[in-house]
Amino acid sequence: MTGNIDSTIKKNSISVIVMPNTAYNETLKDIVSAALDKHGSLCYISLNKPYNSVMTYLKNNGVDSGNIIFIDAVTKETGSDSEQVIYVSSPTALTEINITMNKILEAGGIKVVLIDSISTLLLYTEESVVLKFVHSIVSKMRSDKNDCIMAAIEDESTRELIDDMSMFVDEILELGKK
């Protein structure tokens, strides 16, 4: 599985990686490792788990997170930002997430964003709104020559969104498919 992820991230600017729920943590670790190998640094937008949980998992599994800046949309600690984490109010605050991501990218040094996960947005927001949000991010990333990796859980509820996203991403890697 790691080989497919490495290849997808190395050859594509904008990709969606669809994974089975049972392989979620391991797959995200592989995605982070591959993105760090390609770019050296990463902006990790966490819509699914708190920053501390993600950091602990990565550290316990041998991933150096020193060059990762997190946008945490889960933890309710806005105003407690540090050099490594910026808290936003919620996963529904798409404009706030987008503005925060743009500030991080404009500061320089980071050339890739990981969104964990697009599937989570569907719990809070209508599919058409999620699609517009993703399209906005993809357009900005392309115009600025940055990369974007979007994680998604393989599920019936995400199928239509993933199919629609195929119009404007370079590749959709489906890890659960044979």
What does this structure look like?
With 178 residues, this protein is an alpha/beta fold. It has a single domain, classed as P-loop containing nucleotide triphosphate hydrolases (Rossmann fold, 3-Layer(aba) Sandwich). Helix content is 47%, strand content 20%. The protein contains seven helices and seven strands; from the N terminus they run αβαβαββαβααβαβ. A seven-stranded parallel β-sheet has the order 4-3-2-5-6-1-7, sandwiched between helices. Helix 3 (51-60) links the parallel strand 2 (42-46) and strand 3 (68-72). The longest helix has 17 residues, at 127-143. It starts with a helix and ends with a strand.
List its traits.
seven-stranded parallel beta sheet; single chain; 178 residues; globular; Rossmann fold; 7 helices; 47% helix; 7 strands; alpha/beta
Number of helices: 7
CATH topology: Rossmann fold
Morphology: globular
Distance between the first and last residues' Cα: 12 Å
Cα gyration radius (Å): 15 Å
* Proportion of beta-strand residues: 15-25%
SSE series? HEHEHEEHEHHEHE
Question: Helix and strand layout, with pairings?
Answer:
Elements: H1 2-11, E1 14-19, H2 24-39, E2 42-46, H3 51-60, E3 68-72, E4 85-87, H4 94-106, E5 112-116, H5 118-124, H6 127-143, E6 147-153, H7 156-165, E7 171-174
Parallel strand pairs: 1-6, 1-7, 2-3, 2-5, 3-4, 5-6
Helix pairs in contact: 1-2
